[in-house]
Amino acid sequence: MSTADIFAESGHDDLLLPFQVDPFGLRGRMVRLNSAVHTILDRHGYPEPVSKLLGEVMTITVCLAGALKYEGVFSLQIKGDGPIRTMVADFTSEGHLRGYAAFDEDAVRQAADKGGATVPRMIGGGYIAFTVDQGVATERYQGIVPLAGQTLAECTHEYFRQSEQLETGINVAVRKDEFGIWRAGALMLQRMPLDGGDAPEPGKARTVHDMDAYEDAWRTAMVMLSSASPDEIAGTRVAPDRLLFRLFHESGIRAYPAQHVAERCRCSKDRVESVLTSLSDEEIQDMTVDGLVFVICEFCKSRWDYDEAGMKKLRAGTDD
Hints:
- It is a single chain.
- 38% of the residues lie in helices and 28% in strands.
- It is built from twelve helices and 14 strands.
- The strands form three sheets. Strands 1, 2, 8, 9, 10 and 11 form a six-stranded antiparallel beta sheet that branches. A six-stranded mixed beta sheet has the order 7-6-3-4-5-12. It has a two-stranded antiparallel ribbon with strand order 13-14.
- By secondary structure, the protein is of the alpha+beta class.
- It has helices at 3-6, 35-44, 48-65, 105-113, 119-122, 152-164, 208-227, 230-234, 240-248, 269-278, 281-287, 308-319, and strands at 15-21, 26-33, 73-80, 84-92, 96-103, 126-133, 141-146, 168-176, 182-190, 253-255, 259-260, 262-263, 292-296, 303-307.
């Protein structure tokens, strides 16, 4: 498959690019985000340490979702007892990304002044949850593990070690360029069971030599993964396919068609009004401020306002 075919549907930015490192079929994903991540972070206008961590959460979300077969929504949620209380990102099978954070601004500033936006300093103790929601007709899957690590990449490693028992390496980069534009990227590799790689000769079982070669291939791939700089992963200087070739061409690498990633929220007026009509009169009263009920989407900041007459009309319509 030519490079043009691989990027035919995605272009060279805002993409999720699957690849495989031979000869043992190490499964990889590359994510590179430009307008998708900038639109979200610029809209929120969070302090820089919060934006950077939320950028990492969204990038990891796309990376992990790309390793799954699902039709629906993949979500990553982080809850902590530190300055950042919550970070949420989700990514649909159609390629739509969104995210938000909840935090104490003064506490974030104080933590940042002490140096380093690490997970313990900014998020504290808590958990990381991964959820796959494929609709009401399918049972929802969720995995939860405690936060463990100085970085979100380390926390992700720990999740796969504990919950999936699948060795995973991930290199994440989030940065703001010289024009003030947020960019993000990630490289992820997963070591699949040995039978997922090239088969031994017909009629022969795996040998110690096979296992040694498998271990060497994994260690080499991890070294190469770690060698990619933030500029290479998230910047524009090196095209995605050229970076993968630089890192893994000696082992052999195959890339597959990339998926386009776009910022898009799933909120709507219909969904908001469906929720409002399901609430009791007491709950509506509790939400009313100066005669107005308003709803703000935490993801995209869209706002819907209803005065007393509007609420009566909405709820009367429900009763018809």
